[in-house]
Amino acid sequence: MPYFNLVGKIKMDLSSIFTRLAAGALLTASVVANAAVITVDNTDAGFSSSGLNLSTYEPGYFGDNYMADTRDSAGDFGLWDPTGSSDWVAGIWKVEMMWTSGPTRADNAAVTIDSGSTTSDLVINQLLNGTVWNDLGEYSFDLSGASVMIDDSNSTSGQNIIADAVRFTFVSANPSAPTDVPAPGTLLVLLGAAAAVFRLRRQ
Q1: How many whole angstroms separate alpha carbon 70 and alpha carbon 142?
Q2: Phi and psi of 94, rounded to 5°?
Q3: Which residues cross the membrane (predicted)?
Q4: Within 13 Å of residue 48, how many CA atoms lie on the same side as its CB?
Q5: How far apart are alpha carbons 193 and 155 in whole angstroms?
Q6: Half-sphere exposure for 126 (CA within 13 Å, toward CB)
């Protein structure tokens, strides 16, 4: 291979390797920096609802108050959307929900967790474990379109659903296809070749 072609190829290969290494370092830094906890309360901009009323009747709520439906109406829901937070990134997040205790709570409240591309349906008993964070599992979320919704589609007449707060805790990045990373030793080989060319040039 002509001298100048060899030098050019080595420069291109080294540039490509350093670019990939830098990208990998930035990705790692991003994941670490975004090991966040996002809490969406019923008074936050990320919360929306229909058919629910503000209440402070039962103690132990998160923030200033909570929301409850009217027990005998249909189509009531509360929805928490964490994507407005600057800490939100695509990845695997742990989801927890808090509600207040009370004798009229729904024992079969429907919860839908929307990852942005798939949904998971749960049934929770709000008669139990009030005023604490209840673990709903870990889910792989997209960058946008993520939400958690509770509704009264399963609820028995006379029971009410409670919408207080949902907490999202970052666990890890989503699994992805292997990146095109140079094989071990490639950088050393290219650096050795560059050194050899430099020696030839000086002779």
Answers
A1: 33
A2: -85, 135
A3: 181-200
A4: 5
A5: 72
A6: 29
Instruction: Give percent of the chain with pLDDT exceeding 90.
Output: 62
Question: Is the alpha carbon torsion for 61, 134, 47, 171 positive or negative?
Answer: positive
pLDDT value at 180 more than 80: no
Q: What are the beta bridge partners of residue 203?
A: none
Tokens of 69: 């439906």
Q: From residue 94, how far is each of 44, 86, 174 by CA, in Å?
A: 20, 17, 13
Is it true that domain 35-172 has CATH number 2.60.120.260?
yes
Reported as a single tens digit per residue, the pLDDT across 140-174 is 999 988 999 999 999 888 899 999 999 999 999 98
CA atoms within 13 A on the CB side of 191: 6
Three-state SS for 11?
helix
Give bridge partners of residue 68 from the DSSP assignment: 53, 162
Show me where the domains of the chain are located.
Answer: 3-30+178-202, 35-172
Question: pLDDT digit string (tens) for 84-112?
Answer: 999 999 999 999 999 999 999 999 999 99
